[in-house]
Amino acid sequence: FFASCNPKICVVGSGPAGFYTAxxxxxxxxxxxxxxxxxxxxxxxxxAEVDIYERLPVPFGLVRFGVAPDHPEVxxxxxxxxxxxxxxxxxxxxxxxxxxxxxxxxxxxxxxxVVLSYxxxxxxxxxxxxxxxxxxxxxxxxxxxxxGLPSCQELNPDLSCETxxxxxxxxxxxxxxxILLSPVDIxxxxxxxxxxxxxxxxxxxxxxxxxxxxxxxxxxxTIKELREMVNLPDTRPEMVAADFNGVAEALKDVPRPxxxxxxxxxxxxxxxxxxxEQERRNKASRSWGFRFFRSPVxxxxxxxxxxxxxxxxxxxxxxxxxxxxxxxxxxxxxKCGLVISSIGYKSVPIDPSVPFDSxxxxxxxxxxxxQHVSGLYCSGWLKTGPxxxxxxxxxxxxxxxxxxxxxxxxxxxxVSISKxxxxxxxxxxxxxxxxxxxxxxxxxxxxAEMKKGEAxxxxxxxxxxxxxxxxxxxx
Length: 475
Ligand code: FAD
Hints:
- The radius of gyration is 25 Å and the shape is globular.
- It folds into 2 domains: 8-121 and 347-437, NAD(P)-binding Rossmann-like Domain (Rossmann fold, 3-Layer(aba) Sandwich), CATH 3.40.50; 124-345, FAD/NAD(P)-binding domain.
- The two termini are 49 Å apart.
- The chain has helices spanning 16-37, 61-65, 77-85, 104-110, 139-146, 171-181, 184-187, 194-202, 223-230, 247-250, 256-270, 275-283, 381-384, 390-410, 422-431, 439-454, 466-474, and strands spanning 8-12, 49-53, 90-93, 113-116, 122-123, 136-138, 163-167, 207-211, 235-237, 286-291, 294-301, 308-318, 325-335, 338-341, 345-346, 365-366, 369-370, 376-378.
- The model is unreliable at 37-45 (pLDDT under 50).
- Strand 11 and strand 12 form a beta hairpin.
- By secondary structure, the chain is an alpha/beta fold.
- Helix 6 (171-181) packs parallel to helix 9 (223-230), helix 9 (223-230) runs parallel beside helix 11 (256-270) and helix 16 (439-454) packs across helix 17 (466-474).
- Residues 12-18, 53-56, 61-62, 66-67, 71, 74, 97-99, 117-119, 121, 143, 172, 175, 345, 350, 380-381, 388-390, 393 line the site of flavin-adenine dinucleotide.
């Protein structure tokens, strides 16, 4: 026999993890209990109510602020998230910074369960001297800048140098290289911000080096992103042939996706291009290339301007199994005026009451159940660490939702006592002067952005500050 009160669940963060967790909870909770009632004479039905709390006034996390502006097709997941948000049993509370405006403990008191899905908002640092110089940025801030993340709008990077160095060879590094080198006419049709477009129009960057500590067989990007680089108009690839010694021979033992990726790299680096491609490369005004077996040792600065003028790299060799790069003792200096470290995002703790594994930078969990705290769950990058695409995040979020439903099922999670849910949290927020933004408020912002974009032939012109967003909500 089920008590008739509906499970009230809140989700912290409205990125893919938050939305996919909410979607599954709303769907599964209903189906599950209906199927139970088929075996009993009671018609008890529990419909989960899910409230999503988001720090920013706008939803969708890295789909809005991470995914590259020239990848609009990836952002189509927003349509599914919007359908979830519009369900009567789902509510969105934007502009609520959990851990600051309201504590996790308060949320736990108000809801039967709390799911933490707040992503990975910190970044790994290189830990080398000179990292603080002007002209050195984390990928996270640089991506946030071109995608309109309010906290990154002061970045205003100086693009007046010829060479940019990106440390890291994952998809984020390639997104950044592509944005730095793409013809502005292509980017003009995307939702990249206007200040970024203007900066890119003035940019003097002609050469982008994408640096990895290991070799071609260990590169972390996927073939789609590499292909985009290879075909990028007005650019030519410039690789170091010696970096590929022995790679072709090693290919027979690697899994198929990596084999295809490496073959494309080998072809780009070593094959003599056909006539047409050669002509294209000769005409290109910009270049890009991977540099392998290099780790940053020091960012070199001009002592007067305190701006970056180069980077010192240690030369590595790989241990036999390729798993580890070891220093050879040799170093090499590369002249550059911009350094972007793309060596990984990192989750941060937002509330001292929540267990946090600082070494792995995740909330320790078992299938999404936060260890040692009943009623607390996690999903997305906070659960797994900052790797994987949206589809990976979707699967791990569905897993978390499944764990939660199992716990309701087994009685491990007690949902028999009625909980106040958003009612009590709204009262707390009002007392604290915090005005949440609803999903229909977001739709006002969405409309304003799309209208602003229309004038310049863009899908949208993002509002760049929280104040501006809130002003639109209030009109
Ligand atoms: P996030 O998307 O970061 O969402 C977390 C949310 O929590 C954010 O909205 C944040 O504002 C909110 N939040 C944070 N702190 C708080 C707080 N204290 N209170 C309330 N809310 C809070 N995947 C693809 O499939 N294709 C791509 O092209 C692609 N491009 C990418 C490009 C970049 C630069 C990056 C970094 C990732 C990319 N990914 C891509 C991966 C994809 O973005 C992630 O898999 C996914 O966004 C992770 O989802 P998440 O919900 O865990 O985190």
